[in-house]
Amino acid sequence: MTVAAGGCKSEGPASDTKPAAAAEAKAEAPEAPEASPSEAAPSEEEGPKVQLAFSRVGPEQQAALAERTGDAKLAEAALLLAVRYEVPEGWHIYWQNPGETGLRTQIKAQVADGSGEAGETLYPAPDALVGPGGQVSYGWHEDAVLFVPVFGETPSVDIDSRWLVCRESCIREKKKASLSLPELAQAEAADPLLADMLSRVPEPAAERVTGTWRAEAGKDSALVLQAEAGAVEAFFPFASDAALFVASEAEAGDGLAVRYRFQGARETFPEGQGVVRWKDGETTRWLTLALPWPEA
Predict the structure, then answer these.
(1) Which are the contacts of 36, defined by CB distance < 8 A and separation ≥ 6?
(2) Phi and psi at residue 98, to the nearest 5°
(3) Which helix (H) or strand (E) holds 8?
(4) 90-139, pLDDT tens digit by residue?
(5) Is the pLDDT of residue 285 over 60?
(6) Domain end position, chosen among 175, 201, 227
């Protein structure tokens, strides 16, 4: 799904916002730098654009996710925390790789008493967001849910989340919360947003998608993706300074050609290329692509 990232006029005072195309931090930065109040904070009268809500994923849904993704560690987690970002209509937030503009939505989770640990954030696959100038970013329009596995018998978890919310302009926001896990409500299994976000957590591509490297002009190389069945519809790259994603385009036979420019040592390349959206009939899956990189 590709959606327009542009929209209406800036919200709030001019000092609170910045143009979406001018969000400075690179996609691969480990975390967004602290924003000054004059640059990013919404006015007191307006309040934050995005509201956060917390719940725990039901044990059956957690087990189903662990089985589908082949994540044995997730199956052992005491619970799977769902962090819901309630985004106003017409606005959007960003994926782990925001793309050409934006900042990654981040969650830092810390077990308060040291009796357990919090795992890495699980990012559901995004949509492509196309700006007025043609810049392609990755994220979600309106509401989204990220997931954090929690291990051990800890009674509480401290959450520190930061994000950039954009329409025609952008606002940096953050939220800290201390959650009492025994009191945390279980998410409704029938919640359509929760079900959609869980289904978008990528699983290994395995044999469903294969790739062949093809040399291109200059320093470019193309990874030609073909599906064993169905079609490869879209590609969302992991951020990398060394294996720089250039573009993706349709390939004959329902395939996709993903072009890269290599500008670093092979040992600095990411473990995988990104996430593909694969469709076979009425079935849509988001698959993690982790193919060998070409030899230098």
Answers:
(1) none
(2) -70, -15
(3) none
(4) 999 999 999 999 999 999 999 977 788 999 999 999 999 998 888 899 99
(5) yes
(6) 201
- Does one domain contain both 242 and 170? no
Let me know how many helices (H) and strands (E) the chain has, helices first.
4, 20
Per DSSP, the residues of 185-233 read PBPPTT-HHHHHHHHHS-EE-TTSEEEEEEE-STTEEEEEEEESSSEEE
> What pLDDT was estimated at residue 22?
42
Among 222, 231, 224, CA closest to 277: 231
pLDDT digit string, tens, across residues 217-236: 777 899 999 998 999 999 99
Statement to judge: residues 116 and 211 lie in one domain:
no
Q: Which of 171, 186, 201 lies at the terminal end of a domain, its last residue?
A: 201
Total tally of structural domains belonging to the chain: 2
Residues 6+ apart with CB under 8 A from 165: 49, 50, 87, 88, 91, 92, 93, 171, 173
